[in-house]
UniProtKB/TrEMBL annotation:
Signal peptide: none annotated. It comes from the Archaea. InterPro entries: PUA, PUA-like_sf, PUA_sf, TGT_C2, TGT_C2_sf. Transmembrane segments: none annotated. The lineage of its organism: Archaea, Methanobacteriati, Methanobacteriota, Stenosarchaea group, Halobacteria. Residues 80-154 form the PUA domain. This is Pseudouridine synthase. One of its GO terms (molecular function) is RNA binding. It comes from Haloarcula rubra.
Length: 156
């Protein structure tokens, strides 16, 4: 991977997730491997411990569990997080969606379509996925899907 491609990946992560996310996700050029499409566009960014992100056709990243863990370690709570309790923990961990009824707290800055980290109230990462509701009202909804889970921690 070229230095300019690496800088572009970091810049995209900083834009999508906030300052410092690029460095958190991709610490150095030799710690990540990038797969490309037949046209040469980046597809997946993989580290030794698993998939960090997939680069979508819309230019946004979708998180893998490894990437979610790195963002969770980098950003202070509640940034990018949706917190659920014991009642939904086993279901979300196995990859089922997180419903608003069980959300205890959420990052007020989350918007529908943003990547979200679903965490247990004790701080364990349960899943990564896409927010379906705005974070500022997620805990107030009684029905509906809060996060469309892409990957649960049991699927690791």
């Amino acid at each position: 991977m070229s230095d300019s491609e690496f800088r572009g990946l970091r810049r995209g992560a900083d834009y999508q997730f906030g300052p410092g996310a690029g460095r958190a996700l991709f610490p150095s050029v030799d710690t990540v491997e990038v797969t490309h499409t037949s046209s040469g566009r980046p597809r997946q960014v993989i580290a030794d411990d698993g998939r960090l992100v997939t680069y979508g056709t819309d230019g946004r990243y979708t998180l893998g569990l490894t990437g979610g863990r790195r963002l969770q370690a980098h950003f202070e709570a509640p940034r990018h997080r949706v917190v659920v309790g014991d009642e939904s923990e086993p279901f979300v961990r196995e990859g089922r969606n997180a419903f608003a009824k069980f959300v205890q707290q959420a990052d007020p800055g989350l918007r529908p379509g943003d990547e979200a980290l679903v965490v247990h109230e004790d701080g364990d990462l349960l899943a990564v996925g896409r927010a379906e509701l705005p974070g500022h009202g997620m805990a107030d909804f009684e029905t509906g899907m809060a996060v469309k889970v892409r990957r649960g921690a049991d699927g690791d």
